[in-house]
Every structure is written in C-alpha cells, then in structure tokens.
Input
Amino acid sequence: MEIFAYRLPYGKHRKKDLDTLKFMAATGVDLISISPMNTADSLGNPYTDAPLVWRAEDVYDFASLDAQFDEVLSVHPKARFICTVDLNTPLWFARKLSEDSFYSLSNLALNREWKNATTSYLRHFLEHCEAFYGNSIWGYVPACGRTMEWIENDFEKDGLLKGEAFQRYCSENGLGKLQIPTMNSLLHSEHEFIRDPEKERNIVEWRRFTGKVAADLLIHFIQTIRETVPRNKKIGVFYGFVLNLFMGLHSDCERVFDTMPPDFMIGAACNSKQAIGNNSGFNAVTKMLSRRKIGYLHECDRITSTSNLQITDFVSLNRSGIWTPWASSAEDIAGFRREVSMCLIENFSFWAFNIWGQSYKSPELRAAIKNCFETWKMYRGLSSGSTAQILFVADMESNFWLNEHHHAIFKALAWNCRNNLMECGVPYDTAVWNDLAEIDLSQYRIILFQNLVWMTAEREKVLFSKICKDNRLIVWCGTPGILYNGKYDRNHVEALCGNPYTTQGFAKKVFPDWISFSVADPLLLNDIAFVRHILDQGKLHCYCKDAAVRHSKEFLMIHCKKGGEKQIHLPGPVSKITEVFSGKTMPGNGISFTDQFETPDTKLYYFSK
Output
C-alpha cells in the first residue's frame, strides 16, 4: 500500500483554501482526506464549521455529512476519500455523561451507555457513507481521544468505573488484590525514575490495565468497521506511538496489531525534526509494522514559508518548536522532496496535511509538488526497503517500569536521542523488543536500546544468541537489566553488559565479537557531540559528508542545507543512475560519483540495471 493523498485544512480554514484542493485536482492527486468532526480541539474550537452530524441519541444530521463530501466533489469531481470517523463525545453527550472522551477515554471506554451509543453512531455513519458515497470512499479512520489520536493526558487517574474494572483485571490475571495508585505514588518511584517490581507492582499493573482498556475499545471499533463496510475498504489509525516512552493508551498496540490489525497506521511529521538539513523521521516503529504487513502513512504537516498559523481570531501559534516554518520557497521545496523521498525509500504512504491552510500556495512549491507526484507514480513500490545500519529498539515491557514524571530523563531518552541521530544525518530503523527474534539483523552495525531495564533469562538467550555478536556496537541507554527476574538488582547490570552499575558518565567494554557501550547518564544524549562520538564507534558507511541520507538498494536520498559539489560514495557499484526529480541520468562508474547541489537541496537517485 503506497498512496499519495491530500488532507484538507481544519474548520473554516478549509473553505478559505479551496484553491489548493483545485490545484491538487489539476495535479492528479485524487485521494482526499476529510474530517467530519463532532468535537472541539484542545483550544475549544470546533474541528469543523459544519453542523454536527451526531445531534442527539440516535439522531443524525447526514445532510451535514453529505455537504462535506459534496463540497469536495464540487471542486474535485474525481475525488476519492479517506474519511475520518469522529468517535469522541459531542458536547451534548459529554454534558449528559459528565465526562468527555477527549480527556477521559479510558473511563468512558468502560461506560456501556457511551460505548453502545458510539457504536450505533459508527454503524449508521458507515452505512450512510457506503450507501451514498461508497464508490468514492477508499478508507476510514476511526478517531478518538485527545487530538483524535487515542491519547489521554492523565490516563493514570482513577475514574468512576476504572477501579472496579481494575480489580476484575487483577483477579483474572492472578495478581491478587492490588491497590489503585494514588497520585503521590505515581509522581515518585523507589529508584529515581525506575519502579521496584516488588514494591510498586500495583502502579505498573494499573498502567498496563489502562492500555488494555483502550486496546479493547479500538479492537471493538475496528471490528465494527470490518463488519459494516466491504473488505476492500482500508482502515487507518492514529495509534501505536511507542517511541516516546510515555506510551499511555498506546501501550497494548501489539495486541491490537495481532488480533484486529488496521491496514495502516498514521503518524504526524510534526513529532520529528522539521529543520532543513537533517534526516527528519517517522512516528512508526518500522519493524513492528512491516513484519505484520501493516502500512504506514506519513502525515506531512510541516509548516511551510506560506502556512497560516492564525488558527482563530484570538490565537496565533508562535513560530517556534514544531511550528517553526521553513524559511523560503527553496526550503519548502527541499523539505517537501525530503519527506516524499523518505516515504518512497521506506515504501510508506504520504499525505500532505494543509493544517490551517495556505501551506501550498507558492508557485515554486506547487511546481515541486507536481514533480513529486509524477515521481511518486513512476517510482512507488520499487524500493526493497531501508539499508540503515542502525537499529533503534524500544522495549514496551521496560517502559511500564519507568516513572514518566522524571521529565528531563524522559526527554533525553525519548526525544533528544532520536532527534540528535536525525541531526547527524544517519538513517536508522526502529523496532520493539518482540521484533528482534523475528527479523534479520545482518545489516545493522549499531543496535541502540532506548531503555532495556527489564530482563529475564529468556530475554538474555535472545541477546547473546542473536544480537550481541558479529562485531556490532551495542548501545545501552540507562541501566540495562537492572530489573532481573522480577527483582531490582544493580549487580545484574554488569553481568549483562560488562560495565558496572553507575548513574554517571558512560563506559565501553570490548568483547571478542561485540562492543558494549553503556550510557549510564541518559542526559548525555542531549549533547549531539556525544551522540556523534557513539556513532564513530560503529564504523558506519558514509554516503555523503554534511548531508542527511536514506538508502535502499534501489534509491539514495541526499538532503543538504548547504549546496555545492558533493562526493557521493555507494556501498557497491551500480550501472545507471537517474536523479528522479530532474530526470538527469549518469552512467554508473564504480562506487562513487559527484553532483552539484543547490542551497538547500534534496536529490533522489534511482539505481537501475
């Protein structure tokens, strides 16, 4: 599944930028994402300016839904649709229930009245869409929770129904009677940011239980869609974000993907680096999805030099952080090409999200988008996949035992480590622990464990039979294996990685066929110079200096902030090279070549026989 789509702006911004929809239609982009929402965003603004579709219990205004489809079709008659289904509580229902799923999803998921009413709405919504627009609908996205992404800020707090359900969970799993954790116990942990398996089991099981509640609900909604619409309709979810340690309602995603898998997962680009010159990134755990044959849709919500950030009459976003715009049309082009190139190499899908409108207005960027779409049609599906030499591994079980309220450590492990890898320009793949026994690891020179505190004898067999070998560099962030066979054991850190327990600095030990590199102080990962020092130990192939790269056997992306003539080194000889955006061809002459780059620039090379 490799699609190229356009997502309409939120709310009233949609009507203010119908011109971009016309442009996409003229370009040939016919897959359009619409969002007929019933709820308000985190600022209290309606996600759409259309009348509510879900007006009262068993009362639906499908004329409002029709108008939203017809508005697109009036501009783009050949449009096909990815349709979001908003499963959050409209205000009238939230008032009745005294709870809003936008902020209390894990409790409302246990509320039979809410679940039955929401399921009924979902079925009626789907049946209407299929009856009147079925031939034009490509797929559906069930959305719920904060920002429609199955998120709940304070997922650990108790609720009217959660306490009793937790005790049932404990009984069914042979855990005895565990106390529901207080907020004070959640804020503190026995061993700095690591919880004690014997003293804090109730906290971990409470968190595990809450993720299970959300997973059960999503499984139910996906099953409802499967039962209601034809099997050829695709289902996507904003769910499965586990690289940020604080997994919340996403913690049981592997069970969802195993028992009632969606066709694709969606992740926002704004959760990775925006800046021109670096390697950007994805929310996806690539190996977790690919071995289950679940697709990934990269939502390109980058802020271009023309993007509107005046999101209401009273609120304008600061142009900083993830909302820092690209500075010029030249940066817009280089950035947009970078995002498309990465998806082509990874065999991911792509949609351009024009969040609050005006993102794709400049003639220069529009010309580049046309070029990107033509490139997409010609080259999609031709990649055999990433040849990255780094594997970044998250561990779901270990994450349960961390105290996410240690914000500085969490930021270093979850965000800054990956962001600095991106800044270094090296590509990396991602996996969770359960992937390691199932996938081929032969391409990886460095395997970096984000947080492997939970260890068992069975896990060690996997480590020493498959991972710690072949002269690899194994990077351990934090204190690996400190929770061993259900107990807190500092001595086991050295037994596992060869470096003694400490919370300061870093250490390295060379074994006969692998190298152990322990980052005892996670805050060191905030320093990009230190991250570069780690990479230097791994003897990685350098494709191009001072550039960000992505590579497969068929493609090479070179993205740079500063131009000039660059020397490019390939891992093996090729016979013919085509730069796909320009169509320029050059003969292969061994394993290196030179090319001239603009400031900034993105080139995508295709190697053909």
Summary: The chain is about 35% helix and 20% strand.
